[in-house]
């Protein structure tokens, strides 16, 4: 159930295992948030524009689908931080908030002298004795100070998880930081114990890759590879289980039904919670505790000669201290090749989905704010695109893994049934692919 990247991946790996008679249901938007628009000379990403290579599942799937030649590297890793309306270069050499280029760090305008001194004291901060979950804000401010949290870590990482840093679970999102603190006593010591790398490797390395024809080309390739799978573009209203047969009946909004021997529910958490009510009331109740947020992405195009700023960077993230509502802007034309005509800036502007007014007003606001930030002289953008992802971003709040484990224990009691999705154990594309694959493997194993 569900035609996002998790559901598509589950079907792919079910077919690889020899399964037959597979259906993907609710597939009006195959690929989910992996949505790419090709509009004349523009290639616009409406959702994610890349995936991380440190987690192998997306790269492995790309290779299995024969798309390796489509992988592209960012043209630059340089980005800015917007602080009180002023764009500042990100300090070079920050590795997990630890300065590795001391000269660049000490010269940075982003931090005050006291803030820099507090960061350098991280190696002397005692470790936390408790093994209970901790918020991202608590961990970063405890180890590096409030300035590092507010001016760097929060703007840079906050958008990934769409959760306030005071509520974001460290165990569910950055467990490696907790492990480093426990093993080495500090993140500074952990970085000092890493293998040394040459300057050229540090400068050229990017853990993220995109796809030449857009991120949706991965979903397209997955769909084309499925030979034993039918696509049922209907809205699911009900899901029942006949425990005497361990089989399922799926009811659709048009009054028809479909019988199924096994089910992988790879729907967004709000839809999953509704359908679980007839399968397991306890699991449905627990699913109601998983929260979501919304996002708005407005993409604008401008002639570069209308911009009085250097835009040779991937964009900027914003510290939450200015009047602007924009939380970040990715400059797709500068970050990736094959995204826009020469001498045109293609800028994606990100907003909290709760700040949405209407499409026209949101575009006007994005133009006004971006024009003030990077000094755009044009009265209007060349082109505009707008996407609202309503209740689509799962939030990983403190205690998240405990809730997931409890939910998984409940689901284990339901025969021939699996849950998978970005609200469970990872929001990124590699995580979703892994969860779809693991759900398929568990069904086959059973």
Q: What is the percentage of strand-forming residues?
A: 15-25%
Q: What composes the largest sheet?
A: 7 strands, mixed
**CATH class value of the largest domain:** Alpha Beta
Structural class: alpha+beta
For this entry, give a set of tags.
single chain; 446 residues; alpha+beta; FAD/NAD(P)-binding domain; protoporphyrinogen ix oxidase, domain 3; Polyamine Oxidase, Chain A, domain 2; 7-stranded mixed β-sheet; 3-stranded antiparallel β-sheet; 17 helices
Structure description:
This protein is α+β, with helices and mostly antiparallel strands and 446 residues long. It has 3 domains: 5-74 and 209-291 and 396-445, FAD/NAD(P)-binding domain; 88-193, Orthogonal Bundle (protoporphyrinogen ix oxidase, domain 3), CATH 1.10.3110.10; 292-394, Protoporphyrinogen oxidase, mitochondrial, domain 2 (Polyamine Oxidase, Chain A, domain 2, Alpha-Beta Complex). The chain has helices spanning 5-16, 57-64, 102-107, 113-120, 136-144, 146-161, 170-173, 175-184, 187-192, 199-204, 216-225, 269-276, 281-287, 332-335, 359-374, 400-411, 429-445; strands at 22-25, 36-39, 42-45, 51-52, 71-72, 80-83, 86-89, 94-95, 98-99, 208-211, 229-232, 236-242, 247-252, 257-260, 263-265, 292-303, 315-318, 328-331, 344-352, 383-394, 417-419. The protein has a 7-stranded mixed sheet, sandwiched between helices. The longest helix has 17 residues, at 429-445.
């Amino acid at each position: 159930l569900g035609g996002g990247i998790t559901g598509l991946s589950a079907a792919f790996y079910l077919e690889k295992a020899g399964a037959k008679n597979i259906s993907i249901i609710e597939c009006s938007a195959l690929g989910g948030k992996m949505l790419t628009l090709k509009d004349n000379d523009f290639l616009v990403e409406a959702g994610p524009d890349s995936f991380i290579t440190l987690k192998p599942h997306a790269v492995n799937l790309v290779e299995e689908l024969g798309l390796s030649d489509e992988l592209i590297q960012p043209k630059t890793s340089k980005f800015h931080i917007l602080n009180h309306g002023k764009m500042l270069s990100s300090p070079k050499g920050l590795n997990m908030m630890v300065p590795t280029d001391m000269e660049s760090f000490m010269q940075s305008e982003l931090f005050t002298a006291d803030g820099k001194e507090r960061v350098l004291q991280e190696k002397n901060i005692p470790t936390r004795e408790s093994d209970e979950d901790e918020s991202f804000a608590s961990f970063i401010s405890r180890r590096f100070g409030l300035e590092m949290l507010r001016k760097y870590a929060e703007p840079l990482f906050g958008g990934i998880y769409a959760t306030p840093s005071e509520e974001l679970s460290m165990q569910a999102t950055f467990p490696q930081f907790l492990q480093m603190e426990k093993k080495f006593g500090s993140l500074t010591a952990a970085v000092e114990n890493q293998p040394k790398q040459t300057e050229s490797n540090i400068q050229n390395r990017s853990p993220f890759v995109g796809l030449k024809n857009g991120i949706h080309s991965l979903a397209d390739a997955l769909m084309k590879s499925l030979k034993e799978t039918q696509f049922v573009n209907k809205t699911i209203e009900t899901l029942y289980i006949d425990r005497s047969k361990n089989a399922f009946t799926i009811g659709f909004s048009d009054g028809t039904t479909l019988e199924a021997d096994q089910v992988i529910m790879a729907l967004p958490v709000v839809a999953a919670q509704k359908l679980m009510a007839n399968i397991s009331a306890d699991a449905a109740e627990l699913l109601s505790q998983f929260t979501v947020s919304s996002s708005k992405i407005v993409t604008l195009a401008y002639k570069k000669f209308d911009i009085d700023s250097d835009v040779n960077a991937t964009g900027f993230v914003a510290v939450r201290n200015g009047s602007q509502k924009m939380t970040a802007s990715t400059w797709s034309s500068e970050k990736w090749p094959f995204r826009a005509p020469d001498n045109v800036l293609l800028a994606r502007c990100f907003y909290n989905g709760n700040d949405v007014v209407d499409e026209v007003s949101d575009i006007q606001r994005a133009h006004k704010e971006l024009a003030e930030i990077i000094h755009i002289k044009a009265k209007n953008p060349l082109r505009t695109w707008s996407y609202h992802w309503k209740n689509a971003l799962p939030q990983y709040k403190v205690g998240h893994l405990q809730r997931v484990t409890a939910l998984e224990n409940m689901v284990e009691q339901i025969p021939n049934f699996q849950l998978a999705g970005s609200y469970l154990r990872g929001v990124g594309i590699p995580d979703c692919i892994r969860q779809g694959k693991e759900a398929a493997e568990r069904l086959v194993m059973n």
